[in-house]
Amino acid sequence: MKGIGTGRLFTDHAPKYERVERERRYLLTQVPEGLKLQDPHAQITDNYITGTRLRLRKSRWVPANEWTLKFTQKHTPRPPDFSRTLITSFYLDEIEYETLSVFEGNELRKNRYPFEHEGRKYSVDVFLGALYGLILAETDFDDDTEMDNFPVPPFAARDVTNDVIFTGGHLAFTTIDELRAELKKRNDEVGTMNGEPKA
Questions:
Q1: pLDDT tens for each residue of 85-137
Q2: Could you give the count of Cα atoms lying within 13 Å of 140 in the half-sphere of its Cβ?
Q3: Residues of the chain under the 50 pLDDT cut
Q4: Which of 18, 47, 134, 186 could form a disulfide with 86 if both were Cys (CB 3.0 to 4.6 A apart)?
Q5: Residue 140 dihedral angles phi and psi, to the nearest 5°
Q6: Homologous superfamily of domain range 17-193
Q7: Where are the domains of the chain?
């Protein structure tokens, strides 16, 4: 790798292209009532390019058999607050997508369903492959106040927005068994701190 020589990287150019994405993420134990796996959805494959903040996505909207190809940089300016991220995306044609796909990536596959509850729109992600069994829901916000005061919806088990193990960049490196083991370990530790015996 040639690098940039002896200079330093100018980093103050990002606001011109980035947008702030505000979202909350929820862990579900099952798909919400009223949503069926055969309902209209997108098939998404994400490749997180190793060692970078870059993601290559191909998405097929199943009802129309229509593909979208996208290259994205997404990062968190103030971790562990993962509810606010800075995102820069642009769309690709097939040749551009194939050219970028040669980089080593970590694949994440899921089916994404649009879902509405009490007038609010959610995306429900049913994961496939190594994460089969994981279901997450996301919803976006226009301002910080609304997001910060939004309650956990009744169809969700818990809010996992600020839990790093449920971010895409982390999920791309894990399996459903590893995820379950980590959650069990946490529950055991909480039980021990509360004076409860381990299971």
A1: 999 999 999 999 999 999 888 999 999 999 999 999 999 999 999 999 999 99
A2: 7
A3: 1, 192-199
A4: 18
A5: -100, 155
A6: Hypothetical Protein Pfu-838710-001 (2.40.320.10)
A7: 17-193
